[in-house]
């Protein structure tokens, strides 16, 4: 798919942007704090309806407008599907409005509206309509950071390709907080523990769908990322992605604990219903402990994913370079995976990632990106790019929230 036009209003430091977007590579060049990342953030928002940066949508609204009684921050994108999306019109328009309204007492309220071709949609309906894969300098955190980073990564990617995943996730979180409130109450004040049965059933049903989707996706991603890492390391490293579910539908028997940590456990044969039943049984088995703790201890909210290369856990023993290359392999695999799942090539968004890579990896990445349908790539330094890449790209100069398209010089 391809973004053809982007307009922003009161979004971060863009008071107004209206720009045609060509296919192929677009290089966003500018000094620090000019708006490069913000522009990518706006595009990625259309794929996930959340910011990869901000902890709250309110931060996306331009500072200078924040004291106005009514502010509408807007992202509008026109994009086109490539051939092979028979169920949908080729041309689409997606719009997000973040509306901040202040009442007479000075309290402000934020609303989010999503319009697909002019018709209002819920997040769960609009997610996956536009697809993007994001490369960030701190994506190393996917390997090195806390499990939360990996869950977030999985959730953002899976929401885009698996219909219903985003809604399941929202529902799961809602159920989790209700169940936690009840556990806390039972812990503090006692009461009838059978009240939990209703929440256990619901949590297990929704949680099982999430676990099932994660099992399948990690399996698929691993198959694609393995060869990419081998390629990037000239055959030296073999990657394994090891899903570590907090409720394991296929727990290891005590005999298996002696196996190496990266030994493959194939959970992909488990049906959603098998997982649901197992999850629910486990919840009733550990009920007493959970009441004592006053919170839910198993389920997708506690899942982890580990990266192994040649048998070592990269998150613990990997060198910086090894981790970086593994994430790069994962991200490159994600592009192929998303294309296979949706029938459309995602728009690629790369924020300042080249500066982090050694020259060989940099060239590897640029070679792989050269043929992409559309990639928006930010940089403070054009010298990091090969001449071939720069001459094939359209160059946008970004200065304080304004974009100037650099005219192409015809040879
Ligand atoms: N809500 C907002 N309203 C107005 N300006 C904002 C808002 N949020 C952030 N900014 C400002 O927008 C500017 C652009 O930030 P951005 O992260 O896009 O810069 P950048 O070009 O990616 O810079 P760098 O090269 O340092 O990464 C910064 O000066 C930032 O402080
Ligand atoms: Mg930036």
Describe this structure in words.
This protein is 40% helix and 24% strand. The chain is an alpha/beta fold and 411 residues long. It has two domains: 1-131 and 344-411, 3-Layer(aba) Sandwich (Rossmann fold), CATH 3.40.50.300; 141-339, RecF/RecN/SMC, N-terminal domain (Glutathione S-transferase Yfyf (Class Pi), Chain A, domain 2, Up-down Bundle). A hairpin with a 5-residue loop joins strand 5 (91-102) and strand 6. Helix 5 crosses helix 6, helix 6 crosses helix 7 (272-285) and helix 6 crosses helix 10 (320-342). The longest helix is centred in the middle third of the chain and has 37 residues, at 196-232. The structure holds adenosine-5'-triphosphate (ATP) and magnesium ion. Adenosine-5'-triphosphate (ATP) binds at residues 12-13, 30, 32-38, 59, 61-63, 380.
List keywords for this structure.
single chain, alpha/beta, Rossmann fold, Glutathione S-transferase Yfyf (Class Pi), Chain A, domain 2, 6-stranded antiparallel β-sheet, 6-stranded mixed β-sheet, 15 strands, 40% helix, 24% strand, binds magnesium ion
The biggest sheet, with number of strands, parallel, antiparallel or mixed sense and barrel status, is: 6 strands, antiparallel
List the domain count as a whole number: 2
Strand content: 15-25%
Query: Shape, please?
Result: globular
Query: CATH homologous superfamily of the largest domain?
Result: P-loop containing nucleotide triphosphate hydrolases
How many strand elements? Answer: 15
**Strands ordered across the widest β-sheet:** 2-1-4-5-6-7
Calculate the mean pLDDT score and round it.
93
| Structural class by SSE content | alpha/beta
| End-to-end distance | 29 Å
Low-confidence stretches: none
How big is the Rg?
23 Å
Which small molecules are bound? adenosine-5'-triphosphate, magnesium ion
- CATH architecture annotation of the largest domain: 3-Layer(aba) Sandwich
* Oligomeric state as shown: single chain
Estimate the helix proportion, in percent. 25-40%
Give the ordered list of helices and strands. EEEHEEEEHEHHHHEHHEEHHEHEHEE
Look up the CATH topology of the largest domain. Rossmann fold
Please tally the helical runs, counting DSSP H or I stretches of 4 or more residues.
Answer: 12
CATH class category label of the largest domain = Alpha Beta
């Amino acid at each position: 798919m391809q973004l053809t036009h982007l307009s922003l209003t009161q979004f971060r430091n863009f008071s107004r942007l209206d720009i045609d977007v060509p296919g192929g590579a677009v290089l966003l060049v500018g000094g620090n704090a000019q708006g490069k990342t913000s522009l990518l953030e706006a595009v990625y928002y259309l794929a996930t309806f959340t910011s990869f940066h901000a902890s709250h949508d309110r931060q996306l609204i331009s500072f200078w407008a924040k004291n106005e009684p009514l502010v509408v921050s807007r992202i509008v994108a026109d994009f086109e599907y490539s051939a092979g999306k028979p169920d949908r019109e080729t041309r689409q328009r997606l719009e997000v409005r973040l509306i901040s309204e202040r009442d007479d007492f000075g309290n402000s309220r934020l609303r989010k509206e999503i319009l697909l071709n002019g018709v209002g949609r819920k997040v769960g309906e609009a997610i996956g309509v536009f697809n993007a894969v994001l490369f960030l300098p701190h994506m190393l955190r996917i390997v090195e950071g806390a499990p939360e980073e990996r869950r977030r990564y999985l959730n953002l990617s899976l929401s885009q390709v698996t219909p219903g995943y985003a809604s399941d996730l929202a529902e799961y979180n809602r159920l989790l907080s209700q169940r936690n409130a009840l556990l806390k109450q039972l812990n503090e004040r006692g009461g009838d523990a059978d009240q939990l049965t209703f929440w256990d059933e619901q949590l297990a049903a929704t949680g099982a769908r999430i676990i099932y989707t994660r099992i399948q996706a990690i399996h698929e991603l691993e198959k694609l990322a393995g060869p990419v890492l081998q390629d990037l390391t000239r055959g030296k490293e073999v990657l394994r992605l090891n899903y570590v579910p907090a409720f394991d539908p296929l727990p290891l028997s005590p005999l298996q604990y002696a196996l190496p940590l990266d030994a493959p456990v194939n959970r992909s044969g488990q049906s959603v219903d098998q997982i649901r039943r197992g999850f629910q049984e486990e919840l009733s088995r550990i009920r007493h402990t959970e009441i004592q703790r006053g919170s839910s201890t198993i389920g997708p909210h506690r899942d982890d994913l580990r990266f192994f290369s040649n048998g070592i856990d990269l998150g613990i023993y990997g060198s910086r370079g090894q981790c970086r290359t593994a994430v790069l392999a994962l991200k490159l695999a994600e592009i192929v995976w998303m294309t296979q799942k949706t029938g459309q090539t995602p728009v690629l968004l790369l924020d300042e990632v080249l500066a982090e890579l050694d020259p060989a990896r940099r060239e590897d990445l640029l070679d792989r990106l050269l043929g992409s349908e559309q990639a928006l790539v930010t940089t403070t330094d054009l010298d990091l790019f090969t001449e071939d890449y720069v001459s094939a790209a359209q160059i946008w100069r970004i200065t304080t929230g304004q974009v100037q398209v650099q005219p192409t010089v015809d040879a």
